[in-house]
Amino acid sequence: MSQAPSAQAETVRLPLAGVKVIDLSHMLAGPYASWIMAALGADVIKVEVPGRGDFTRRIAPFLDGQSIYFLSLNRNKRSVTLNLKHPEGKEAFLRLIGDADVLLENNRAGVMARLGLDYPVVSAVNPRIVYASVSGFGQTGPYSNRPAFDAVIQAMSGTMSITGEEGRGPVRVGASIGDIAAGLFGTIGILSALQSRQHTGRGTYVDVAMLDAQLALLENAVARFLNAGDVPRRIGSRHPLIAPFQAFPTSNEPIVVCVDTEPQWERLCKVLDREDLLAEPLFVDGNARLANHAMLEPILIECFMQRGSEEWLRALEAAEVPAGPINSIPEVVADPQILARQMICAAGGGRFVSQPIHMGFGDKSLPWPQREAPALGADTEAVLGTLGYSEQEIARLRSNGAL
Fold first, then answer.
1. How many Å apart are CA 37 and CA 176, to the nearest integer?
2. DSSP label at 101?
């Protein structure tokens, strides 16, 4: 494996230090996967189209003239511009992957084959490479050539059918979980393949579809339908199997309360000064409370409306009943727990979410790299120089459109 550059390399070896990732992905699903690997210490070289780059570079809003979307997803990476449709650009790419550990792409099925850079070609150059394709529908099946975006995947996977208020229309989950789930499963697949390579000596092909990944997130809803005939539907903030487990209004701001065990139910009734509910046969256990939630919910709403959210949250915390506020984004990024966990970091001139994996114990936990996202092609000369290209050759490649 090649050595990833890191300002901390002299004192700390990060988990993925020495792993070289060639990142041909764009937009969200692929870059999210490579962001995770870069945050864990991999040397991620983002290969972009000359003069244009990743489309997200042009998405507003901007910070100092650069897309915040792009800056967030592409921290700790390097950028090289190569024209893969140019013979010499393709030749440079094949040299680049010669000692790489991972190739990541998220084009539509068939695109890499048309470029002459599909897995059979790449693995012939480098048999140890892990070649990962993250796409909307995967490399096989009747939908494999279709384009896909997050909302399409949320709709087709069934996610939107169970998201929203009862009796109202379907709602997209506020975050792009179709892309993000595929990015996470793509990362897991890549790391698993790297681990397998330790034993086999060879790389492999990893095929992750956004639709497959989204279905995997719906495991309980799908399992209930397949095995019990239960068709999940939109029920607002309620849990389909547990009650009370939802948002409740208070005299000012709503809160979320989740009661999963009998001791928690007993403590909730005590906090609400409604211990009489413990003797009610309709609410005798979790299954009964779920079956009769339509009668239980208005009782609890009436109770919670008597006080404000902060007072309820203090009382529920003291009673060890799981509960929390419904934070806005400005509120959560200022939350003391988030700050204590260092989940907001600085990179370049901006502030972003940190990767959430904490490794090590106490003051021995690893400090993760925090380098800003690269300018388009900022590392082209340096990377090509490591492949044996001279300054004159690089200038010639640039002048003839290969870079």
1. 19
2. S
Around 175, how many Cα atoms within 13 Å sit in the side-chain half-sphere?
A: 7
The backbone region for 51, taken as left when phi is positive above 0, alpha when psi lies in -120 to 50, beta otherwise, is left
pLDDT tens sequence across 175-234: 999 999 999 999 999 999 999 999 999 999 999 999 999 999 999 999 999 999 999 999
CB contact at 8 A, 329 and 319: no
75 within 8 A of 347, measured Cβ to Cβ = yes
Map tokens 């996610």 to a residue.
Answer: 159
User: What is the secondary structure of 85-97 as a DSSP string?
Assistant: TSHHHHHHHHHHG
CA distances (Å), origin 249, targets 102, 253, 303, 318, 371: 49, 6, 10, 20, 43
> Regarding beta strands 255-258 and 323-325, do their DSSP bridges make them parallel or antiparallel, or are they unpaired?
antiparallel
Helix, strand, coil percent content, the chain, rounded in steps of 5? 45, 15, 45
**Rounded to the nearest 10 degrees, how much is the dihedral formed by the CA atoms of 305, 252, 329, 336?**
-90
Of 44, 31, 45, whose CA–CA distance to 73 is shortest? 31
Handedness of CA 50, 55, 57, 62 (dihedral sign): positive
Residues annotated as catalytic (active site), given as ranges: 239
- Cα–Cα distance measured from residue 163 to residue 166, given in angstroms and rounded to the nearest whole number: 9
